[in-house]
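[09:14] KT: can someone run the structure on this one? pasting the chain below
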Amino acid sequence: MEKKNKQEQPEELDKPFDDNVEVMPEQEPEVKESKDISDEYLNLARVIQADFDNYRKRSLVQIEKAKIDGIASTVEVLLPSLDAFKQVKEKIKDDNTLAGINMLERAILSSLEKLGVEKIEAEGQELDPNVHNVLAVAKDPSKQDGIILQEFQAGYKMKDKIIRCSQVLVNKLD
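[09:31] RB: done, structure tokens below
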């Protein structure tokens, strides 16, 4: 019977266990390449995510700029009508009609303020060439040099965007 048992056992079991078994050289590079590829994909995913975040931020800035530009161009078209109120008010003699024109003008200015449009202060202010356009100069010794004496046409701005410069008369002492 011993013969039969010995024949059934494979020869490998008869060999002693060897601790110095080497890993096949084919397996090591495959594991290393797999790790390199996964790191590469992870880095690529991070780059794509950062690019998308930058794109989203740029898009928000562009949308805000387009909104401001759209409002500014619309207001620019309406400003001559608003200027007409000033000319009409000078010619009206009836107090009730004048009160009605003033009410309409205040309503329009209030609507512009809600859109973020502000009137540029001019009269009595120091000349700022970025927002004031000098049409004429006058000499008034009672006022400082460079002070705006009169505003011919109102200027408007929205945030940092100048919609229209103020047309002014400036004091020049020299």
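[09:33] KT: thanks! The radius of gyration is 41 Å.
[09:34] RB: yep, looked fine to me
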